[in-house]
Specification:
24 helices, 64% helix, Death_dom, Death domain-containing protein
Length: 344
Amino acid sequence: MQVLYIGDVVDNATLMDELAQCLDREYRVLKYWKHLAYELHIPPDVQKGFEIYFELSPTVHLFQFLSTNDPHLTVGKLRAALKDIHRNDLIKELKDTSDTDMVVDVFNNKPSLLDRIALKLDSAKRPVGDWRNLARKLISNGQLVKEFEAQLHSSDNPTALLFRYLCTTEGFSQLTVGVLKGHLEDKKMLRRDVLAALADHGVEDGDLLSGVFSPDSDLLNSVSTLLNKKSPGVKNWRYLAYKLGVPNKVYDDFDPDANSPRCRPTKMMLEWLRSEHPEMTVDQLRTAVKEIGRADALEILDGYLSQGTYNYSAGNNQQQGLVFCLINNLMDIIYAGFSFSDFK
């Protein structure tokens, strides 16, 4: 019998898509790709790379922004900024560069260097200096900092998409600030920070959302920053959409985690395994999947091992599709707005 390796999995686009759809989504009980990574003994720092840098690295975006707004930024200035935010560990990463080197040239010639710095800055938690602290040091103009943050979230702003929908869709276009505040004040959501932002901008209860949440407005930017954040136990834009009566299928389309091709940690994990452990067999992968108790993913692999394809019977496909669709929709309704802490 022919032995199949991890590279055979990665080379099969259909298989990769099905495994990603199966294992990418986080659940409260079911185990997902992070648990599989643990079973496969993938180092924690590598795992973080699958979910931080590739999804959206603010550090990488920061240096892209600086390449056009401060193209003459030198390594010396970068070192000074890193010293100010107490990141001597990152200064050591620059040991093979000169103070007079241009940062844009260094990172263009050594993209892996930017990767290493980005990973550490993106994942930093207080009191360790992160990408935000570095941005404030490298961008002296406060307005430019705001422009950078706006660019950072422009293609990844589900709250803005939600308000655009509310402001332009029949049945929602007459919603007022008062209705919005009612949901924000409800004890099940209770977002005092968003209520404070509304108060700071002086909007009235009788104002239509379409009149105050104009595209690129300061109010929309402020509210988006707050509602886009994912924090355990804190209701975000998804829960607000659910409470306002927006159909689940509609607000799912706003979710960058569900729709961005960048957000496929399962695929990136398997690609990493092919690169670092090409000798790994599909049977070994199957054993790890079995350990995390994901029978659906196991069935996908079993179909591949036995047939090399995914031509399950139409009846089984329909039944499985209906069951998983029902489960996913119910969980979306029950846990709308939930986000979960990193797997430990």
